[in-house]
Amino acid sequence: MTHHYPKWLYKAPKREHPVDDVKEPNLLRDMFPYTEVPRIEIEDTIVPMEPAEEIWITDTTFRDGQQSRPPYSVENIVKIYDLMHELGGPNGIIRQSEFFIYTEKDREAVEKCLAKGYEYPEVTSWIRANPKDFEIVKQMGLKETGMLTSISDYHIFLKFGKTRQQVIDDFMKVVESAAEAGLKAIRCHFEDITRADFWGCVVPFAERLMRFSEESGLYIKIRLCDTMGYGVPWSEAALPRGVPKMIYYLKKELGITSDRLEWHGHNDFHLVLANPVAAWLYGCSAANGSLFGIGERCGNPPLEGLAITYAELTGTTNGMNFHAITELANYFREMGVDIPNNYPFVGRDFNVTRAGIHADGCIKNEEIYNIFDTTKILNKPYGVAVTDKSGVAGIALWYNQYLGLEGEKAIDKKHPGVAEIYKWVMEQYDQKRTTAISPEELIELGKKHLGDYFK
């Protein structure tokens, strides 16, 4: 962590904000040396936390999520969309979902999701910065689309081979075409914003967009795309990596309202959930995510993680149905998706203990070692896996859960049959066993040593 403060990071220049049309790319080598790990610049200035009045979630499961895996079938998409509607509830906490529209299969999926008639999540699309694509959007009957507007010099100079002014002018022509096509709203996806010259390119482009929105009546949103996962959630962090300063200055310098800002992140540096939460807390209404974090490279903010965090921040589910999270995980497994066993909220072992001392605590009171009432909230009962670390307490807990025994009817860890099963378990590991005892084995052992309970 470094503590020097380049001048260009310090404070906002005065309005207006012309493009700093440099002739050579500014690749911010102080921060991004490439042959070394990137730098996080820490400043001695902070910006105040000003949460958005209303926050919500948007979805990219069918766009970014599909870019990282074999494509979903139409049937898969419709089923996931149904369950996502259940998860988000009637109040639009999961406000929108974006879809590809380029192939016949893409369009069939969109049509079938639209036919459901759900208010939420609203079906939107994603297109390239091509005016002709707006006709497809209009033909599909969609009110909003996202459009790729890459904003860093890495893309402007190294990919497009143009200058900042040329690229921004090109983007504006496409945005103008959206208004001419009769679209109600457009999202400009500021790709690679956390490696962009904030004051020299990001702010001037955002300013032109907001001015055009006011003149034309086209509702324009800005998706802040942390394409490479460089964003950090701390107020002291300098631009362009600091999420709080990015949100703060777009709002204060340009007057952009919270409802027009959306955060889209990636998990390359393990901050994929911290960053959208910071965006919410510093004034951005929308946080974009994908179910189970499935997205390009290291993935996107997990949609279900954003949903749980929403409830933590607001103190209410606001109509969301968290049982749908478990249903979605089960459906993804049916599709062959490998969800890690220790994955939060949905992994097979996320609320399973293997430690005897933990099991003993849960026999006394489940709350001691369970994050919340997972049975009530997620329809996922607390569990125990039997290994050489489980002890008699873990074994007793397993049987009580399997048999649904509670209170006075529960099997005590001091039961002689439990002792016999424990003895057998330990013999297995003395013989170099490396796997947990399977449910089938435990059932057979239970019938042998706890026969009265299995009648």
From TrEMBL:
Transmembrane segments: none annotated. Keywords: Transferase. Residues 55-326 form the Pyruvate carboxyltransferase domain. Gene3D superfamilies: Aldolase class I. GO terms for molecular function: transferase activity. It comes from the Bacteria. This is 2-isopropylmalate synthase. It comes from Candidatus Coatesbacteria bacterium 4484_99.
